[in-house]
Amino acid sequence: MIPFKIIYADFKRLWGGTLILTLLIATAVAFSMVVNLQERALREGSARAADRFDLIVGAAGSETQLVLSSVFLQPSLLPLLPHHYLDELKQHSLVESASPLAFGDSYKGMPIIGTDDDLLRGRDIQYGNDGQNHRDSVFGSEYGAIVGVATGLSIGDKVIPIHGQVGSEGAHQHESVNYTVTGVLPASGDAWDKAILVPITAVWAVHDAQKHENHADDEIHHHVGDVSAVVVKPKSIAGAYQLRSQYRSGESLAVFPGEVLTRLYGTLGDARQVLSLMAIGTQVLVVIAILMVIVVHLEQRQRQFGALRAFGAPQRGIVALIWCGLMLMMSIGIMLGVIVGYLATLWISQRISSLYGMKLPVSIQPEDGLLIAAIWGIIGVVLLLPAILIYRHSPAQALKTV
Description:
The chain is of the alpha+beta class. Helix content is 54%, strand content 14%.
């Protein structure tokens, strides 16, 4: 049986070196945990956000930007799609529903999106006492607004839209109009929880009126009636591929969000590999540094081990004593690294969620356990070396060591 009182006494006497070694291994493990957990959280969170969008049609341009703007509501000057595409898609025999998206306005940094009833149909919208007035339209009125639960807005609140990004050139407030919140959407765990949805006809009317008031402002008010994108729900999988093929030519672009994200995952995977290699390199350097410190540490304890050998302690017992002490220290470091890595990933994910509104699920999976076990096993084998090196000196030589 290993005398753990001796190990504890050594830890207490050499607490400074013990603390440094523990923190070194904890840092290396935490780095690996953050790389693995955060990459998986981003992958799963973005995939969930894209699940509600089967096919998106927009003007010819960047597929990635179309998905980032439509699915994740990232502000960008998307090229506008002529209105006749929306009419065609709504009447298309392969389309179950087609909902327009019109970007450009905001309220307190939250996007105001022009759309129609089809996008919200079937959603469990929480209305006020006048819910019976929403039979003809989910918005309840021409200037009604359905808001995400994370907007902080309540039924009856007024929303005055701002066109463009606050502080940017050309940004201005539409003071002549305001929307009234008539309903609140349940949480969806994505950027749409901070969205304000209004009838697209109201958006067109607001911009059309502004255009007539200021004919010179062509840069901001041109193409009233066009849309930023159209969210399409095909009737079948085969129909989805036919629609994508049909609207991927000329001035239109059709994309499957999941397909675009898969390519982004490939890029993210490359970055993850680089970070993983950096993590492995860090771990190797940490192990080398630990070994060097351990060798110096054990050299200073040669007299202690020499005395144990002189009193007849078996080789196996002394090696086990040294190895168990070192492994206990490393095990504490590994556990601390797992905890710190998990908490750091949670913090990073919460920051991303607060900035972009997308929830990132953070969880430890079996493969993470295998990684931890592999690190523990490798360290266990490596630490046998300094434990065995104690026997390169005889007991008499060890006792003479200063």
